[in-house]
Design goal:
Elements lengths: L11 H12 L5 E6 L7 H11 L10 E7 L4 E6 L1 H24 L3 H19 L14 E3 L1
Parallel strand pairs: 1-2, 1-4
Antiparallel strand pairs: 2-3
Helix pairs in contact: 1-4, 3-4
Length: 144
């Protein structure tokens, strides 16, 4: 989706706190990547980062990646096989549409937090946190 300026202001600490809070409710893993370079297709780029970050290696295959490509004015929200099977295509479209509204208003941190919260709600419903759950992936905003 093409929606935002090439140098959005993102409060990494707020986004990381949102990821940590979200993962207290679910066994799912949420990651955020902000690309430095232009990409031809944000979904293709997101899938490559999904693999590179080891998101396909989670126990329940329930990771979600929010990928921003500011130089391309685009972003993608993708999930692993198990979460995609449970929530369907409409979840991804609704999440992206809500985020897009915030991005258009220049509210990039808020847009990311909203996307994380929407993903967490679906993850918590379908993959609730278990007593023995452990954080499988780092809670960071990665710049790549």
């Amino acid at each position: 989706m093409s929606v935002f300026s090439s140098s959005p202001k993102i409060d990494h600490a707020t986004v990381v706190a949102a990821i940590a809070a979200a993962e207290q409710r679910t066994s799912g893993e949420i990651r955020v990547v902000v690309a430095k370079d232009k990409v031809a297709d944000p979904v293709v780029a997101a899938k490559a980062h999904f693999e590179r970050l080891g998101m396909t290696a989670t126990i329940e295959r329930n990771g979600v990646l929010i990928y921003l490509a500011p130089a391309s004015r685009a972003f993608a929200v993708i999930g692993d096989t198990a979460i995609h099977e449970k929530c369907g295509e409409s979840f991804w479209k609704l999440t992206a549409a809500a985020m897009e509204l915030r991005f258009k208003q220049g509210e990039f941190t808020d847009g990311l937090v909203l996307g994380i919260e929407k993903a967490a709600a679906v993850l918590a419903e379908n993959f609730p946190r278990q007593p023995d759950d452990r954080d499988e992936l780092p809670n960071t905003v990665e710049e790549a």
